[in-house]
Each structure stands twice: as structure tokens, then as C-alpha cells.
Write a structure and sequence with these properties.
By secondary structure, the chain is mainly alpha-helical. It has helices at residues 9-27, 31-36, 47-55, 63-84, 86-107, 117-129, 139-158, 165-185. It is globular. The relative contact order is 0.13.
């Protein structure tokens, strides 16, 4: 008989915490999410402002938003956690959260940001770098960046859909930089 294993602690914990946040937010009619998991410009004296710069990646608007992010997150994440280790994955999650949170506050002060899509895009680009040799730029990474980031640039300019394309772009660029840096450090 085969046993179920907790194969990817960071990825599974992130998905579980995000699901719990969604459930509690549903039970509180969005108050929990809006208070602790939506990043927006706020007073620098409010400690929640600094918390939300990181926690916004755990909040989702609804089940469809959560499912869309977690499907890719759970598909790509375990491979990356095995390859790069739990500590490095936590670092990239925190880095993407911080970069996208700060960009949101500076560039879009009248809008809120939530969701893990920036991390998903970082993982997509990072996965396309995985397995390539130092000194090489993988063609898969270039194609993924052209397709997904090109689409996000187009959508950001042409489409008005309440989706933060900037988060996707910054997440993808962070994933590319992280992947290239990790390859260089393994020389």
C-alpha cells in the first residue's frame, strides 16, 4: 500500500494557509482578507501596512481566483522546492511579495493588491531556467517570457480587467533573476 507524503512543505503550507485565509474571509464577509491580506497605500505608522506588503500573496478574492493561482502553484512549486530547497523558495516568495507590494503602493496608490499570481509567474519563469547550464540563456525561458509577459504588457495597455499585470511582470522578472543568480552561485 502506498502512503501519502508531505512532499513539498513550503508549497503545501502556502496553499493550505491561502485556503484557510479564503475560508475565514468568506465567513467574515471579506473583513479578514481586506484587513490583513490586501496591500494598499496606508499610513507608514500603521504596522498592518508593513505586514500586508508580504501577506497580500496569501489572500484571494474568491474561490475561482484561489483555484486559478493554486493549480499552477501546486503543479510547478514542488519541482522547484525539490530543486532549489525550501529556504530558497521561501526567499523568492517573500521577495516577490515585497517587490510587488512596494510597486503597487508606489504606482497604484488607489488600488488594492492580493493574490499569488506574481509568485506563480515567478515560478513559471524559474521553472524554465531549471536544468539549464550556467552561461546559457534557455530558449524555453525566452519563449515563456515572450508569451506570458508579452500578453501581460498587452493586457496592461489595452484591457481594463482589474488584474495587476504589473504583478505578473515583476513576478516573472524576479523569477528570471532568481533563477539566473542561483545558476551562477552553483559554479
Amino acid at each position: 500500500m502506498k502512503k501519502i507524503t508531505f512532499n513539498s512543505p513550503v508549497i503545501l503550507s502556502f496553499a493550505g494557509i491561502s485556503g484557510l485565509v479564503l475560508l475565514i474571509s468568506f465567513l467574515t464577509n471579506g473583513w479578514f482578507r481586506d484587513t490583513f491580506f490586501v496591500c494598499y497605500r496606508d499610513s507608514l505608522t500603521n504596522p498592518l501596512f508593513y505586514l500586508r506588503l508580504f501577506t497580500h500573496v496569501l489572500g484571494h478574492q474568491n474561490l475561482a481566483h484561489y483555484t486559478g493561482n493554486m493549480t499552477m502553484f501546486l503543479l510547478i512549486g514542488p519541482m522547484l522546492e525539490e530543486k532549489y530547497g525550501s529556504k530558497n523558495l521561501i526567499e523568492i516568495i517573500l521577495l516577490v511579495a515585497f517587490v510587488t507590494g512596494v510597486a503597487q503602493v508606489i504606482l497604484f496608490p488607489n488600488a488594492g493588491l492580493l493574490g499569488a499570481s506574481g509568485i506563480v509567474f515567478a515560478f513559471m519563469i524559474l521553472a524554465s531556467v531549471t536544468g539549464s547550464k550556467s552561461g546559457e540563456i534557455p530558449l524555453t525561458m525566452i519563449i515563456v517570457m515572450v508569451i506570458y509577459l508579452g500578453q501581460e504588457l498587452y493586457n496592461g495597455i489595452v484591457v481594463n480587467d482589474n488584474i495587476s499585470q504589473l504583478t505578473h511582470i515583476l513576478g516573472g522578472l524576479t523569477g528570471a533573476l532568481f533563477g539566473m543568480t542561483m545558476r551562477q552561485s552553483k559554479k
